[in-house]
Amino acid sequence: MIKNKISNGFKILIAGEGGQGVQTISKILTETAYHKGLEVSFVPNYGVEQRGGVSLGYIKFGKDQINYPKFIIADIAIFLSERSVARSEDYVNQNSIIIYNKDFVKKSPKNAKGYAFDSLANEMGNNRVMNMLVLGVIAQYIKNILSLEDIKAEVNKKLAHKYKQYPKLKKMNIEALEKGYNL
Q1: Measured distance CA(83)–CA(24) in Å, rounded
Q2: Please, are residues 170 and 126 in contact by the beta-carbon 8 Å criterion?
Q3: Burial profile 119-135: b = 16 or more Cβ within 10 angstroms, e = fewer
């Protein structure tokens, strides 16, 4: 869990492959922080490929005005693929919380905690919830800043259009969020 470091800005880097939900997670965190009255910046970075290219989300939020959205070192860094580690490892140091996907990152980053996100999602019955497991883990670390309930509400709002097409997804997403939060 992160100590109350919110006043001078809190920085999260999410890095993975296109199709892993990096941009969805980033947007949900950004919107949740915004709706809690925080100053927010989000810089997406991804290739032209929808699936298969490296996808990055740089998120910064805090109580003070954000004058520059980029940051040098992330407070939390999430690596969901091997290529994303190579592309983003310069954004972490010994003070960063580093989380990685053991299913796709074979060489664990130094001082990192790994989770088998894809395997867990498959055990839950659908790989589509992998990103919600990741978001749940992030929520555990930032619970003093953004509550799990606030994040759940934003997930349901952001993905309402998908729930119309696939109604079971709502329950699956919330279960995955809670499972990730309790890992």
Answers
A1: 19
A2: no
A3: ebbeebeeebbbbbbbb
Residue 3 domain flag: no
Residue ranges making up the domain that contains 16: 10-181
Cβ atoms of 125 and 175 closer than 8 Å: no
CA 106, 30, 74, 137: dihedral to nearest 10 degrees? -50
How many alpha carbons fall within 13 Å on the CB side of residue 88? Answer: 32
Number of domain units in the chain: 1
Q: What is the pTM of this model?
A: 0.92
pLDDT digits (tens, 9 = 90+) for 140-176: 999 999 999 999 999 999 999 999 999 999 999 999 9
123/126 Cα distance (integer angstroms): 7
